[in-house]
Write a structure and sequence with these properties.
This protein is α/β, with parallel strands linked by helices and 450 residues long. The chain has 3 domains: 2-208, Rossmann fold (3-Layer(aba) Sandwich); 218-305, N-(1-d-carboxylethyl)-l-norvaline Dehydrogenase, domain 2 (Orthogonal Bundle), CATH 1.10.1040; 310-440, NAD(P)-binding Rossmann-like Domain (Rossmann fold), CATH 3.40.50.720. The chain has 17 helices and 14 strands. The strands form 3 sheets. The chain has a 6-stranded parallel sheet with strand order 3-2-1-4-5-6, with helices on both faces. The longest helix is centred in the middle third of the chain and has 32 residues, at 210-241. The chain is elongated. Bound molecules: nicotinamide-adenine-dinucleotide. The site of nicotinamide-adenine-dinucleotide has 26 residues, from α1 and α5.
């Protein structure tokens, strides 16, 4: 099949590459010329495990192309994916300017005699498929007095994406489920054929109406945010009551109705999806006069949670962080990505530097992106151990694998004090005690070394 993917960021590049991998001809479109030039020259623009290899293979075998020209990109495509940003607007609702801007352009480009499926892969509020359709028809009508003849010449489908950064290729190639919202039989047939190779093991392609598909994505992300925030509140309670959140987590996670995943407490969720999607769902609910009480609480809990370690750090240093130096391990919002959007580490950096401390940070992939945002506000280390030199304490903000079993003797020899604040519960408290660390984490009793 011939496919165009408009927007070549985290979702667009993975989508385009994975569809090329199953033999389709794919053209990815982006307005960012530097990005398009790099990708056309075989230079990958995001860090995502496993992606580079299949990107290079499909590029070399001529199934994957990149352009800044929308008309050229969609000319021969039967399916046009929109993988465009939907950032929060000023009021927290999803800003549809990218989606509707491209829809407007498509209205001028599409031809009446070629049926095309326009697939919304971005996370968008309920009703967006109708808006996309209206924008295309309106712009076609403006461009041609006969109305462009586009009525019936295309279908707008909602096909939300559930991939997780860090395991995006696996998630895309072997999805738990594919959700397709459409009431058009032609589109249904095309989408069934397109996703066939991805669901060979029997996972379902779930067809539904457009609105339900749009809401499914928000419901999925919001539910996961609820699960995380619930566990973060249980962790707070554990500390107050002297219970151990690890034990509680295991105790409830073994209940099939609850499940083991997404029960790990920490310093809050971040990333490009959960924060904005929860906010957008609250906003959409408000528009139909529904006050989504649970999600309002989730947003409040998560805001507080990002700075959960600060009172502990302040207390340890007698509320005086001036002149203190902190090693910070982990900057990405989660491991195995270089994505730093809404990363809790950025909030920690602000709080520490505002209190007069300096930060020496290390992240295996995200340092260039953080440098672009914070500039010289912090120092960047050459390695995780380099970050520790002359530091008063180590703070862990992201649970990269290489932080899990470090050389503790080396940590002890490099840090000024044997102090760790662990925002992701990476270490075993008993081991920390034996090694003589002052060790504080989330939802577990502090290990003190005095
Ligand atoms: N990142 C994720 O893990 C994830 C997962 C599921 C769904 N989503 C959703 O997918 C959508 C895209 O997210 P992302 O993380 O890939 O965003 P991104 O910011 O990484 O990528 C968006 C791309 O669109 C390009 N773009 C902007 N305007 C354009 C235009 N007019 N024409 C062509 N290209 C244009 C940008 O240059 C950028 O490369 C969002 O709605 C997001 O919520 C993201």
């Amino acid at each position: 099949m011939k496919i165009a993917v408009v927007g070549t960021g985290y979702v667009g590049l993975v989508t385009g590459t994975c569809f090329a991998e199953t033999g389709n001809q794919v053209i990815c479109v982006d307005i960012d010329k530097t990005k398009v030039d790099k990708l056309s020259n075989g230079q990958i623009t995001i860090y995502e495990p496993g992606l580079e290899k299949i990107f290079l293979r499909n590029l070399k075998e001529g199934r994957l192309h990149f352009t800044t020209n929308l008309a050229e990109g969609v000319k021969d495509a039967t399916i046009i994916f929109l993988a465009l940003p939907t950032p929060p607007g000023e009021d927290g609702s999803a800003d549809l300017k990218y989606i509707l801007g491209v829809s407007d352009e498509l209205g001028k480009i599409l031809k009446p005699n070629e049926f095309k499926v326009i697939v919304d892969k971005s996370t968008v509020p309920v009703g967006t498929a109708d808006k996309v359709k209206a924008a295309i028809l309106q712009s076609a009508a403006k461009a041609s007095p006969s109305g462009g003849g586009l009525v019936g010449a295309f279908a707008v489908v909602s096909n939300p994406e559930f991939l997780r950064e860090g395991v995006a290729v696996d998630d895309f190639m072997k999805p738990d489920r594919v959700v397709v919202g459409t009431s058009d039989e032609r589109a249904k047939k095309i989408m069934t054929e397109l996703y066939g190779p991805f669901v060979r093991s029997g996972n379902p392609v779930i067809f539904m109406d457009e609105k339900s598909a749009e809401l499914t994505k928000y419901a999925a992300n919001s539910f996961l945010a609820v699960k995380i925030s619930f566990m973060n509140e249980i962790a707070r309670l554990c500390e107050l009551l002297g219970a151990d959140v690890d034990m509680v987590r295991k105790g409830i996670g073994s209940d099939e109705r609850i499940g083991k995943r997404f029960l790990f407490p920490g310093i809050g969720y971040g990333g490009s999806c959960f924060p904005k999607d929860v906010q957008a769902l609250v906003k959409s609910s408000g528009e139909v006069n529904y006050d989504f009480e649970i999600l309002n609480a989730v947003m409040k809990v998560n805001e507080e949670q990002k700075l959960f370690l600060m009172p502990k750090i302040n207390a340890y240093f007698n509320n005086n962080l001036k002149g203190k130096r902190f090693a910070l391990w982990g900057l990405a919002f989660k491991p195995n990505t270089d994505d730093i959007r809404e990363a809790p580490a950025l909030y920690m950096i602000d709080a520490l530097t505002e209190a007069g401390a300096t930060v020496h940070a290390f992240d295996p992939e995200a340092m260039p992106n953080v440098k672009q945002v914070v500039g010289d506000k912090i120092d960047f280390a050459e390695s995780q151990y380099d970050a520790l030199v002359n530091a008063d304490a180590l703070i862990i903000a992201t649970e990269w694998s290489e932080f899990r079993t470090p050389e503790f003797e080396k940590i002890i020899s490099l840090l000024k004090n044997k102090v760790i604040f662990d925002g992701r519960n990476v270490y075993d408290a008993e081991q920390m005690k034996q090694l003589g660390f002052h060790y504080e984490s989330v939802g577990r009793s502090a290990v003190t070394n005095n």
